[in-house]
Design goal:
By secondary structure, the protein is an alpha/beta fold. Helices cover 52% and strands 11% of the residues. It has 28 helices and 18 strands. The strands form five sheets. The chain has a ten-stranded mixed β-sheet with strand order 7-8-6-5-9-3-10-17-4-18, with helices on both faces. It has a two-stranded antiparallel sheet with strand order 1-2. Helix 1 runs antiparallel to helix 2, helix 12 packs across helix 22 and helix 13 packs across helix 22. The longest helix has 38 residues. The protein starts with a helix and ends in a 9-residue tail after the last helix.
Length: 701
């Protein structure tokens, strides 16, 4: 332990040497020995670039918690990067003599502000504002020998840029193309050293002999030409490499900055198989691709995310959405409450603090678990009145979906409230415009918006009334319009297709495909938005969990034989059969009712499942209202029809509930690289919180 403490103190001593070097550099400047001063200033930079790595290796913050190394470094860096080069600018006569003192006050004061600005450096290691590298500025001004008024203009301009939040790369810490950045940073440093070494100060002996010996004079000329050419090459190399680093910092902004516009698309219950089957269907039936797979995934980052709850190997939407929104594991049923009882801030609450507008869009009830987890903190997802009260308190700018039955007073028809509260009137009192159909939604523009388009959940896409009830695509388009218009602060939009999960619970592959296709159309709207604002937008497309254990597979035609001629594998023709299905299995179950007859089943098959054959055992299960298996039990009619479809297409379901399968995360835009890899859903929330958290910035050095 003693050796480690000594090592930690030696690291601090190493950092403190920068003060000694700065003082010696001042002595050289006062003696007009600028070349030596530049060498010492470069040495100070080398110490500053390396002491952080040593400090982390030595764990100085852990071993010496009472010694503030950051404060030490800030003091020394202000001296080395600001005071010393400013003195050199004056002593080397690089500024107009009559204006030198008041000109030099600008970098001194601006840099004092910059070093004390808590947001001067981002957590992903970019400087916001010119990072007070006046030592580099002084060297270039000394070497280039531009007119003094040009030097004065540059000093004033760079002083102003200290206050302008343009992102500048920090070469030794940048995470973007790190090996290239470090390599070019080293080349730049070598070019700087070369410039200093070849500064045009010929030896005195050559000067004294210049008039008496022609050979020496010629050698002097050749040597001077070599100095100048070497200097020109060094200047050119350093300018090119330095320029590349600045340009790269700008290009990297779309990968590392905090996003201004965030789209989080949630295909509730949609696993990788759901996406892939929809993609194949799109290709075979419509000869179309999908934006999620062909744009977001190919142009951005792809990750895999685990989904289990804190108290279960599988999850429900409440625990899963809490992890996504708050970055912590939760128990089944809890919204915005971690398993340890803590109540964290959600990503939408963080966005609201930043002044961003926030929007919730779903084709479930607006108070369902997934949207509610992004703004609420309740122990039970069924506390709908509390969720609506929280919406009133936080005031999301856009709320669109179903669930009118919990907004109207108890005495009104269709209400499921336990009190006489008129929640719609309460929202309108706070300035919300209330809309209830597609036409009203299309006419909205700006202002807070409450859209309730059904008493309960909204319709499956396969049977939606397209002229009156909006789809997820329609609601997304309206949300973007209302969130973006006249908004300089950005927005966070949560957009969910809950029907993918509901259809999967009922083994309904046709309904899944139709809703996933519409979900993809909604993502396309965000992609078009991203193309307009690529350096400010983040698109995330994921799921809270997988539902159903869906997948195409090989199966026996019947149980009479296991021979190969009695086996069937799915084909493109089987996939195309699904387009003949005209209703959801939920609606089919409603049509047949609680006491299905054989005649009613046959009629249903003729009218809505053309080309499909219903096996006798499934027909009997429907009539008897008997679950077809231990894992398919929610609705015997729907599941029996789902297995009928599977027998005809080889697209089988494992369960009527959630599985623990990991789900895909597709990310494009600002910070998207954070979401690649394999991680837990709580880590997803932490990543998103880090991107939105204004307090994540650190002191400059």
């Amino acid at each position: 332990m003693t050796a480690r403490l000594i090592f930690a103190w030696l690291v601090h001593l190493y950092s403190a040497l920068g003060a000694v070097i700065a003082f010696i550099a001042i002595l050289f400047i006062e003696q007009l020995r600028f070349q030596e001063a530049f060498f010492l200033m470069t040495l100070a930079v080398a110490i500053d670039a390396s002491d952080g790595t040593l400090a982390r290796a030595a764990r100085v913050k852990e071993l010496l918690p009472n010694f503030d190394g950051d404060r030490l470094e800030d003091i020394i860096d202000y001296f080395n990067y600001v005071v010393v080069p400013c003195l050199l600018l004056i002593r080397a006569n690089l500024l107009p003599s009559q204006d030198a003192l008041w000109l030099i006050a600008f970098p001194l004061l601006a840099s004092a502000y910059g070093f004390c600005q808590k947001q001067a450096k981002t957590a992903d290691h970019f400087f916001l504002g010119f990072p007070s590298y006046w030592n580099v500025v002084a060297l270039y001004l000394y070497v280039l020998k531009a007119p003094l008024w040009v030097n004065a203009f540059l000093i004033l301009a760079l002083s102003i840029l200290v206050f302008v939040p343009i992102r500048y790369v920090y070469p030794s810490r940048s995470p973007y193309l790190r090996s290239w950045t470090n390599t070019l940073g080293i080349l730049w440093g070598l070019a700087i050293v070369a410039m200093i070494y070849w500064l045009p100060e010929p030896p005195r002996e050559i000067i004294f002999c210049a008039g008496s010996d022609s050979k020496i004079a010629k050698a002097q000329v050749r040597m001077t030409q070599f100095f100048r050419r070497s200097l020109a090459c060094a200047v050119a190399l350093s300018l090119v490499v330095g320029g590349w680093l600045v340009i790269k910092a700008g290009a990297g902004q779309s990968q590392s900055a905090s996003p201004k516009y965030v789209f989080l698309f949630l295909a509730d219950g949609g696993g990788i198989a759901h996406l892939e089957i929809t993609r194949q269907y799109n290709r075979q039936v419509y000869n179309e691709g999908m934006v999620i797979s062909d744009r977001i995934m190919k142009e951005g980052s792809v990750g895999l995310m685990t989904t289990h709850a804190a108290n279960s190997l599988s999850t429900d939407s409440a625990a899963a959405a809490t992890a996504l929104a708050s970055g912590c594991k939760a128990n089944i049923g809890a919204l915005g409450v971690c398993a340890d009882g803590s109540v964290p801030s959600t990503v939408m609450e963080q966005a609201k603090k930043r002044g961003m507008r926030i929007g919730l869009v779903t084709n479930s009830t607006v108070y369902d678990a997934s949207p509610a987890a992004f703004v609420c903190h309740v122990p039970n997802r069924r506390h709908f009145a509390s969720i609506i009260d929280r919406y009133l308190e936080l005031e999301p700018d856009v709320i669109l979906g179903g669930g009118k039955e919990h907004f109207v007073p108890k005495g009104q028809p269709g209400s499921r409230r336990n009190d006489e509260t008129d929640a719609i009137a309460a929202f309108q009192k706070k300035g919300y415009q209330k809309v209830s159909n597609k036409l009203e939604l299309e006419r909205t523009s700006g202002g807070k918006l409450l859209g309730l388009f059904s008493d309960k959940e909204m319709s499956f896409e396969i049977e939606r009334k397209k002229n009156s009830e909006p789809s997820v695509y329609d609601m997304t388009r309206a949300a973007i319009r209302n969130l973006h218009d006249n908004n300089p602060h950005g927005f966070f939009a949560f957009i969910e297709n809950e029907n993918i999960d509901t259809a999967s619970h009922l083994s309904d592959i046709a309904a899944v495909i139709h809703d996933y296709r519409e979900f993809d159309r909604a993502v396309a709207l965000a992609y078009d938005f991203y193309k307009k604002y690529p350096r400010e937008t983040l698109i995330l497309v994921t799921s809270d969990h997988e539902t159903g254990g869906l997948g195409f597979t090989m199966a026996l035609k019947d149980l009479n034989s296991t021979r190969s001629d009695n086996q069937a594998a799915a084909t493109n023709a089987d996939l195309k059969k699904l387009q003949a299905i005209t209703i959801s299995l939920q609606q089919a179950s409603r049509i047949l009712g609680p006491a299905p007859t054989e005649e009613a089943v046959d009629k249903l098959m003729r009218e809505h499942f053309s080309g499909f054959t219903l096996a006798p055992e499934f027909k009997q299960a429907i009539i008897a209202r008997q679950p077809p298996s231990r894992t398919l039990y929610i609705d015997p009619t729907a599941h029996s029809l789902g297995l009928m479809i599977a027998n005809n297409t080889q697209a089988y379901w494992q369960t009527s509930s959630h599985t623990n399968n990991p789900v895909a995360v597709a990310a494009l835009g600002v910070g998207s690289e954070q979401f690649k890899g394999y991680y837990d859903n709580a880590d997803f929330g932490k990543k998103l919180l880090a991107l939105l958290d204004d307090s994540r910035t650190l002191l400059r050095r």
